[in-house]
Design goal:
single chain, about 170 residues, alpha+beta, five-stranded antiparallel beta sheet, 6 helices, 5 strands, elongated
Length: about 170
């Protein structure tokens, strides 16, 4: 009877994980061995503020959930300690935050793999994703790069308008 309850709880956990992974726009798997409770608490706070759900999961549960959504590419990385970071609205936040943190840890915290909008990435791919600035930073850079030419155009139009008014006088 007790084993039946355990099995039902595990099935429910797989269903929940499947739903989370299915609605995710991005997901990163990490090996978190060796970080302190203080570091973990700080990391979780930063992820939470970015709207990223972060949890430690059993590899078998993750494997079942990933297979349920048709992602069989991650079986080889689902060993040892595994935590998963899931975002429903930001393609780079999990990789960016976890990648920055991993760089400060000497092999105690490593990115394993991940996916963005259904496309699987290996460790190198996730590290590359971690270098992409946030959407807000990219938009600010775009606006900044557009301001210069627009200001020059405005100055040119004003100069032409001023010279026309001088000609009319």
């Amino acid at each position: 009877m007790a084993s039946e309850k355990v099995l039902e709880a595990k099935k429910a956990k797989v269903v929940k994980l499947t739903e989370q992974l299915q609605s995710a726009v991005s997901c990163v798997f990490v090996d978190y061995k060796g970080i302190t409770v203080e570091q973990d608490t700080k990391l979780r706070k930063e992820l939470r503020e970015a709207g990223v759900h972060y949890s430690v999961e059993k590899n078998t549960m993750l494997r079942f959930a990933l297979h349920n959504i048709g992602m069989n590419d991650f079986d080889s990385i689902l060993e040892g300690t595994t935590a998963v970071a899931i975002s429903n609205d930001d393609q780079t936040a999990p990789a960016r935050i976890l990648g920055k943190f991993a760089e400060t840890q000497d092999d105690k915290f490593n990115l394993k793999a991940g996916f963005v909008e259904g496309v699987a990435y290996d460790q190198a791919g996730v590290m590359a994703l971690s270098k992409i600035p946030s959407k807000d930073v990219l938009l600010a850079q775009l606006v900044g790069s557009l301001q210069g030419p627009i200001q020059k155009l405005a100055a040119t139009v004003k100069a032409v308008a001023d010279s026309k008014s001088d000609d009319a006088a």
